[in-house]
Design brief:
Blueprint: H1 19-86, H2 89-107, H3 113-133, E1 136-139, E2 152-158, E3 167-172, E4 174-177, E5 180-183, E6 185-190
Parallel strand pairs: 2-6
Antiparallel strand pairs: 1-4, 3-6, 4-5
Helix pairs in contact: 2-3
Length: 195
């Protein structure tokens, strides 16, 4: 029988001194632990290296994207400057023949009133053609048209036989360019029949 305080191994034998086995196991465990630690450090170093490469790649992409945005902004600013500078070029080209006609009319020394009138009518047709090509339209309401505050500017109201809130008289034509009011038509608005 075994002593009451002696440990029994799994086979029922009194346990023998295992300190030697522990030292061997500790040596093996330490070696494996050191290998595992080296492997873990290599894994972390690899992960760190990959992360740093990705950060460098993302930083490079960010710089390229920032440069591209700056280039787009600069090109847009150049386009706006060119549009301001040359936006009236088409309209100016349309007006050159009108000026030529006016200068030609003034260069003729001996003209009859009828010749002047014909020349002015031709020049006006040229000007109207230039307006049409450049989407410049006149706003000329007639008597009785409804007053439109978006295209008309009322100078005053006058009593008239026309319904209240309608155009009583056109004082000056207005103009729109591409559906935008360039100058409103100056009108007098009816206040209705006087009482």
């Amino acid at each position: 029988m075994s002593a009451p305080n002696e440990p029994i191994d799994s086979k029922g034998n009194p346990s023998s001194d295992t300190s030697e086995h522990l030292e061997v196991n500790d040596g093996l465990g330490a070696a494996q632990g050191a290998e595992a630690e080296v492997q873990a450090q290599e894994d972390w170093a690899t992960l760190l290296s990959e992360a740093q490469e990705k950060v460098a790649q993302y930083h490079d992409e960010l710089l390229r994207a920032k440069a591209e945005v700056e280039n787009i902004r600069r090109r847009a600013a150049d386009d706006v400057a060119k549009a301001r500078k040359f936006g009236t070029e088409s309209f100016a080209e349309s007006l050159i023949p009108v000026r030529d006609s006016l200068e030609a009319a003034l260069a003729q020394p001996d003209q009859t009133a009828e010749a002047w009138k014909d020349g002015v009518e031709v020049t006006l047709r040229q000007l109207n053609g230039a307006f049409e090509r450049n989407l410049l339209k006149e706003v000329a309401p007639t008597e009785g048209d409804a007053f439109d505050p978006h295209q008309h500017q009322a100078i005053s109201t006058v009593p008239s036989d026309l319904p209240e809130g309608t155009v009583a008289q056109l004082l000056q034509k207005g103009y729109t360019i591409a559906e935008r009011v360039l100058r409103p038509a100056l009108v007098m608005v009816s206040s209705g029949p006087s009482a």
